Amino acid sequence: QKQLRKECESLLDEHEDAMLPLLTDHVRDGTRQEAFLKMICVDTARKCPKHVNSTESEQPKQKKEFMTERQLKESDQGPLRRLVAESWSREVLNHDWDVVTLMYTSQDQVTKDTIQALKDAAFALMVCPTVRMGIVNLKMNELPPPHGNYLEGVDGIAMWKGSDPESKDNPSARADKIPVFWTKDWREEGATAFDVLDFVFRSVGRKESFDCISQVSQAQTPEGLQQLQQPTTWREESREDSKLLWGDKEEL
Q1: What pLDDT shows up at residue 244?
Q2: Per DSSP, what are the bridge partners of residue 134?
Q3: Does residue 213 contact residue 131 with C-beta atoms inside 8 Å?
Q4: Alpha-carbon torsion, ordered 102, 159, 84, 105, to 10 deg
Q5: 69-76 CB contacts, 8 Å cutoff, 24+ apart
Q6: Distances in Å between the alpha carbon of 223 and those of 84, 140, 230?
Q7: Sign (positive/negative) of CA torsion 219, 224, 229, 232?
Q8: Cα–Cα distance between 104 and 155 in angstroms, integer?
């Protein structure tokens, strides 16, 4: 432990010139917490010698198994996908897609109606291959860190921005996705498909997604646009809808 403290002290001494601008920029610009933590914990920490984190107490812990629902068959997935912890990293954190998720802890009428709004929006965006939309029940799924740390028990709609292919050469642009949360209080004010589409349009990360959503918007007829702006009520019209809301209840 003494050696570890010495190493940390030496890091501060050697790299204070690199760390000071990050701290002052944070104070001056009001950088959001997650962005500030990334600057400190990722950008500056890259300067840390590999052997600093080598004590026995700092060794990686064994992989934890997270609670997860049974993953739906692809044939049971519709435009709005049912997400589970098992598929979270593959379906949400993939940089090839802009992914909108509804995280919920209750299945009351407000939640069902909001799911319908997302379903209608997802249907309108079926032609956009780089946009995905899904829902996840947080009471039945423990999301893997770091995402589970700040999503647990929080009902919310978030955009997980994708990255354009050329950003593969820019490691900082392909870092872990940090969600952009919808600030509208959908539990109090409700949500329409138009509200969801507006949020998606304003928060996507990929240019292809932005262009495709623009085309979808421009193609709407006045009647179609008016329909999207109407309050939504959950409609269970098929086996697919039942699977979306309740998951796969078949025994393993």
Answers
A1: 85
A2: 81, 101
A3: yes
A4: -30
A5: 69/137, 69/140, 69/141, 69/247, 69/248, 70/247, 70/248, 70/250, 70/252, 71/248, 72/243, 72/247, 72/248, 73/248, 76/239, 76/240, 76/243, 76/248
A6: 36, 39, 11
A7: negative
A8: 4
Instruction: Copy the structure tokens of residue 113.
Output: 């109606």
- Give the amino acid at 36: F
Give Rg (Cα) of the chain: 21
Q: Which residue has the tokens 């709609």?
A: 157
Per-residue pLDDT band for 240 (boundaries 50, 70, 90) equals confident
* Closest to 155 measured CA to CA, from 185, 195, 191: 185
Q: Which residue has the higher pLDDT, 235 or 211?
A: 211
Q: Do the beta carbons of residue 98 and residue 180 sit within 8 Å? A: no
Q: How many residues does the chain have?
A: 252
What six digits make up the tokens of 115? 């799911």
DSSP 181: E
What does the alpha-carbon distance between residue 56 and residue 235 come to, in Å, rounded to a whole number? Answer: 55
Give me the mean pLDDT over the 81-107 stretch.
91
In order of 42, 82, 93, the CA distances from 176 in angstroms are: 11, 22, 7
Residue 120 contacts residue 153 (beta carbons within 8 Å): no
User: In this structure, are residues 140 and 247 in contact, taking their beta carbons and an 8 Å threshold?
Assistant: yes
Residues facing 133 on adjacent strands = 80, 100
CA 47 to the chain's CA centroid = 29
Spatial CA neighbour of 103 closest among 129, 125, 85, 124: 85
Distance CA(83)–CA(71), nearest Å, equals 7
SS3 content of the chain, % helix, strand, coil (to 5): 50, 10, 40
